[in-house]
Amino acid sequence: MAEVDDTDIMMNYQGDFLKGGRKSCRYPYCIVWTPIPILSWVLPFIGHMGICTSSGVIRDFAGSYFVSEDNMGFGRPTKYWRLDVDKVCGNGAATWDQAVHDASEEYKCRPHNLCLDNCHSHVAMALNLMRYDNSSSWNMVNLCMLSFIHGKHVSWAAVLKTWLPFVMLCGVLAMFILTLNLQ
Fold this sequence. Notes:
Elements: H1 6-10, E1 12-14, E2 17-19, E3 30-35, H2 39-42, E4 47-52, E5 58-63, E6 66-69, E7 79-82, H3 92-107, H4 119-129, H5 140-150, E8 152-153, H6 156-182
Antiparallel strand pairs: 1-2, 3-4, 3-7, 4-5, 5-6, 7-8
Helix pairs in contact: 3-4, 4-5
């Protein structure tokens, strides 16, 4: 049998991203996001964030002293925000990957704090190390806001996973308030 290039077998293109099966989605040069159960149901702009390498491998600060690789703490990404590698100060892909690696190594030595030092802080450190968009002032607040604005859902199922619990909770709350007011 003729030898076939591995990329022909393993990857096909969908959108701008390499996809090889449901479990190996790749989002090169992206910030990825997934909802956190209960917390995202109440505040849908808050969720779990990771940053991908130039080859699309997801790195995320998933807990104290632990940075996962291609296994996000709360499931596969539901949103992605594609960044421009040309806005990295330095040698593009090499600088990007080095910054993601260095931030990940640093966060392997840190305890997780939901409010002060979390997955958003890990991504911010990577962006600061690469001086993305000529800035070293990335933080969890502007990342939360910008990913909410610029992030795109990966599928319709991802839209439902992100928004359906919030909409249902609002519906139940509205019915409860209406029931109390009509009595």
